Amino acid sequence: MIRRGVAGAIAPVLVAALLVSGCGGPRSGALGPAPTTAPSSATPSSGAPPSATPSGRPVPTSMPPSDPPGAPASTPPAPAGTTTRDTVTIELWFVRAGQLVPTRRVRPATVATSRLALTELAAGPTPAEAATGLTTLVPAGVEVTRITAGTATLRVPPADDPAQRRLREAQVVWTLTQFPTVREVRVDDDDPVDRTDYADLLPPIVVTGPLPGERVSTPLIVTGTADVFEATVSVRVLDAAGREVATGFGTASCGSGCRGGYRVVVAWRTAREQKGTVEVYEVSARDGTRINTMAVPVLLAPGG
């Protein structure tokens, strides 16, 4: 009787475990034929800002984890904050079409990482990044005066346009809070703020890899965060002639009202190295067209 009772108790637990295992993290797979309707513009859509949580406060966004050891994709710069004996990888948030867009830099190692990050923000995007519409609103000379109990204090020159000023502050806040010593930022003696105070400035789809101008090989892992319908993120790769050479899709860890990380693997066949474009987009639930498109120019390595 005791054994029978234990078995009866175990069976519901096994069923529950099987149900939970079906609700894992981001998934990806073959997308199949691309939408037959005309695509939206390759430039990023201003779109609606990411939705807030049920409490009304936007979800803070962090970068997805780095690729696991032995991943067959190309090798992008290390995740933000990665420090080796000789180098440090920093995350920079620039502006495009009134929204925040991230990129990364690998620079000689330094203990003054916040100063380095602000200097890079003021220097602005690379030519490849600028070609995609990225710009900076942070002027030279902005420096952190102190960091106390996780709060970085600094002054940011005023801007005539309130929206421009907010974007400038958002660049600084999102860039500085990548560092473990900075949880929030105090600007001009105002109340401290963090990433959640500017989360509405993120586009529906953020691409953290690949980076503009990066040489990528097949298969490629495309990463980022998104707040899209049913958490479904779609990817396609275009060659130098604009022909579609690869498609894929993935499921973000959260979506339809919340932001989650995604990871999509795509592979292509090309006989020569050439310029290309990685487009990350959402398929419209209304008419199946591509919306909220983020286009990243890259250099496609031959493969297949």
TrEMBL record:
Residues 61-79 have a biased composition (Pro residues). Residues 30-83 are annotated as: Disordered. Pfam families: Germane, Gmad2. Residues 114-197 form the GerMN domain. Residues 30-60 have a biased composition (Low complexity). This is GerMN domain-containing protein. It comes from Micromonospora parathelypteridis.
